[in-house]
Amino acid sequence: MLLINTIQSFYIIKMLHIFMSISFMVFAIWLFIRSAKGIINNTTYSKTDKILSYFFIITLYLQLVFGFILFSNLGSEMGFSYQSADSSLKMVSKRLWPIEHIVMMLFALFIANLGLIITLNTKSDRRKFFNTLIYYSISILLIMFSLSAIYLF
């Protein structure tokens, strides 16, 4: 009975993690479009832009929490083993990917937080949009690289 609850918990947390990832991408695309328009049209940095930045960061933090739960021993009772690949190269790659993914996600979260702090302390609206675009784009690129590493390497 405990095993069934563990399996169900694992999939619920995994679904929440995926839902947060999709929400993150929606906020990221929306923020990217608003920032590009803000730079091109030289508009004012509004409360909506600030709220989008906060949602961008909040969804990253929620992904981190759900990712740590998934990385914990929750999946170990289900027989998930990163050492079950056929070749040794795949075995090492699969075994190290969760650690690499977490480290890259922590860097992405750090850069996004740094971007938020710098953006909020900037006086010029155009510069705020520029900082948002640069720092959050770097964060998104780190996330994309982290996710693609499991498939490319």
Q: Globular, elongated, flat, extended or rod-shaped: what is the shape?
A: elongated
Main beta sheet strand tally, sense and closure? none
Q: Low-confidence parts lasting 5 or more residues at pLDDT below 50?
A: 78-89
As a percent range, the share of helical residues equals over 70%
Number of strands: 0
Task: Determine the structural class based on helices, strands and strand pairing.
Answer: mainly alpha
The whole-angstrom Rg is 18 Å
Tell me what portion of residues adopts beta-strand conformation: under 5%
Q: Average pLDDT across residues?
A: 83
Calculate the terminal CA-CA distance, rounded to whole Å: 38 Å
Which key terms come to mind for this protein?
about 150 residues; mainly alpha; 4 helices; elongated
